[in-house]
Design goal:
By secondary structure, this protein is α/β, with parallel strands linked by helices. It is built from seven helices and seven strands. A five-stranded mixed sheet has the order 1-6-4-5-2. Strands 3-7 form a two-stranded antiparallel sheet. The longest helix is centred in the last third of the chain and has 17 residues, at 162-178. The termini are far apart.
């Protein structure tokens, strides 16, 4: 079993101008839900920090989860600082983290999700790994791959031998009964 870490125990306030959105998040929030998030923050405050990755080279924090809380801070509340936690992961693992966080509460745009699956495939992740890491079923991953129309996404895919399995299971049994 993997060791569980607790980035939430290291919340810190950072200058909001040092925080930036990632360029791959497919999660969208409709205006009514954005207003609900704003209202929630007005009523309850910031109950969750924004999950980030620290880019040392550029001295910025890139959002992994919490983009809409960040938007509220910037657009509605004009906050100078926001609460963040930092996780130290590779880009492919940050992408997976973003999706895991989002899938628990949001919806994804199909085209953007398809691009994420394409990118993870190009990073060398198998269909099974994508399913496991993003909480998807195999047929969902395959449908998202079909949307991109890239044959490269299917070059290592193992296709079902279901017809062969069906024939051997049912026709062989029938032939045995009549012999």
């Amino acid at each position: 079993m993997k060791e569980i870490t607790f980035p939430v125990l290291n919340v810190k306030m950072v200058d909001i101008d040092k925080v930036e959105a990632n360029d791959y998040n497919p999660n969208k929030v409709a205006p009514p839900e954005m207003q609900l998030l704003k209202h929630s923050i007005e009523e309850d405050g910031y109950t969750q920090p924004i999950v980030t990755y620290y880019d040392k080279k550029n001295d910025i924090y890139i959002i992994v989860d919490g983009f809409h809380r960040y938007r509220c801070a910037k657009e509605y509340f004009n906050l100078e600082e926001i609460p963040i936690v930092v996780i130290n992961k590779s880009l492919k693992n940050r992408m997976a983290s973003t999706i895991r966080h989002n899938r628990a509460r949001g919806t994804h745009q199909i085209k953007d999700m398809s691009a994420i699956v394409r990118d993870l495939t190009s990073f060398g992740w198998s269909d099974e790994k994508i399913c496991d890491e993003l909480g998807m079923e195999l047929d969902e991953v395959i449908r998202l791959k079909q949307i991109t129309g890239l044959k490269e996404l299917f070059q290592n895919h193992e296709f079902s031998k279901s017809w062969d399995d069906f024939e051997s299971k049912y026709y062989d049994d029938i032939e045995d009964e009549f012999d």
